[in-house]
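stuck on this fold:
=====
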Amino acid sequence: MLKVRGLKASYGASRVLFDVSLDVASGEVVTLLGRNGMGKTTTTRAIMGLLPPQAGVIEFNGRSVAGWRADRIARLGIGLVPEGRQIFPTLSVRENLVATAADRNAARSPWTLPRIFGLFPRLDERQGQAGKTLSGGEQQMLAIGRALMTNPDLLILDEATEGLAPVIRAEIWHCLEAIKAEGQSILLVDKNITVLERLADRHHVIEKGRTIWAGTRADFVRERAEVHRHVSF
């Protein structure tokens, strides 16, 4: 579904990505791991068209999208839950969810408001509240719900549980497991290696803007010490 090869990207004169490669197949949960500042968010931004790549291949469902505008890439079927959530602060929960709702690819079981509220009952209880009045965990749920309402073929989550209380993190991981069980393809950036080891099918580790390790869940378990050496602080 998603193929990235030799991706290079910069912010002005500052090169951040030197050689990033990764794959996500249909129905897979795939991770992008690494310490802070290694290029994970830059990779997601380049995939989404929020940062023009300088070189490399980005293909989605067989189409080369490198250098496309973000709105064109999103319409192809990629939904992003960005770092920092970036919900609409003055819109209500319900308005946030319907603002970008679409089903361009005629999903078999499209995401609707009732389905989102079933997945995140807290949002159902707060439908009329402005986004800025929600807790951090509720805002993250809203950001995930908003991305799902676009009915994406691929869902990208950048730091899905960063800074959240343990009970909220557990709730979000549970919801992601439910989404995976429905066949949703997911690219996950997070630091919770213990959960990711169980949830993900394949893993990629980047360091200083380069993919330095990639493998399956079995590879991850077998080479856990090597992975931790490049990921843990």
Q: What stands out?
A: The chain has a mean pLDDT of 93.
